[in-house]
Amino acid sequence: MLNIHISRYVTLHRNLGRKYSEQDRMLRQYAAYAEGFGDQHTQVQRIYDWCHTSSSQYVARRRFDTARNFSLFAHAEDSGHEVPPAGVFGRGKRPRPTPKIIEPDQVRAIMAAALDVPPQGTISPYTYHYLFGLLAATGLRISEALALQCNDLVEDGLIVRNGKFGKQRLIALQPSTRQALEAYLATRARLGATGNDLFVTIRGRAPHKVRAHIVFVRLARQLGYRGPTGTAGMRLHDLRHTFGVLRQQELWEAYKLTE
Questions:
Q1: What is the C-alpha radius of gyration for the chain, rounded to an integer number of angstroms?
Q2: pTM of the model
Q3: Pick the CATH number of 104-258 from 3.30.360.10, 3.65.10.10, 1.10.443.10, 1.20.1740.10
Q4: In whole numbers, what is the pLDDT of the chain averaged over residues?
């Protein structure tokens, strides 16, 4: 019963252009937990108990907010669904890390270090080398880059199909960036790497974005750009932030030249 309501709730949000994949996953977990007790309606105490099984306060708060929003939807149609009061697990948001500007020589050093990523003699080191280079050169999100297919490299640029809210766009490429991607595809062919994804590992699929983050942080730490585990520092997303800052500087300089 709960899963039927969840499906309708998720479909409603997706029809508004949202992915809602994380919320869908959490609500399915809640439904499995609640239905294990025979619940057919949301119950305040059950939501509390489910949230208390979380691995951290942050996860508990995310679970609670997601379950509460769903219960509001369900209660509007059936008053048998209970709605917990807001803010029981806190109202604060996890603070965003401070963005870092990555210098060009640091990007080059990270790309060079990526070529030593194991297993050597396979496509994986080249994948991270060229992946990090593309992020730095285009400002793509990591999810967008990993969703690229081989046939997304076209004459006019690069087709990004997995953009924010599922939108598609075409981005122009600098000649050097196109040459780099073509070199990567040639390396793929030489090493016999298969798969439709543009960036692949030895399994023939794109690496998970968490894996890409881990590799980047390890390389940054190895090169001395980050402190020990548990400390803040350079992140993969900073490649996108750096691209945005540099692009703004270029536009500002061009504007001043026209004055």
A1: 23
A2: 0.64
A3: 1.10.443.10
A4: 89
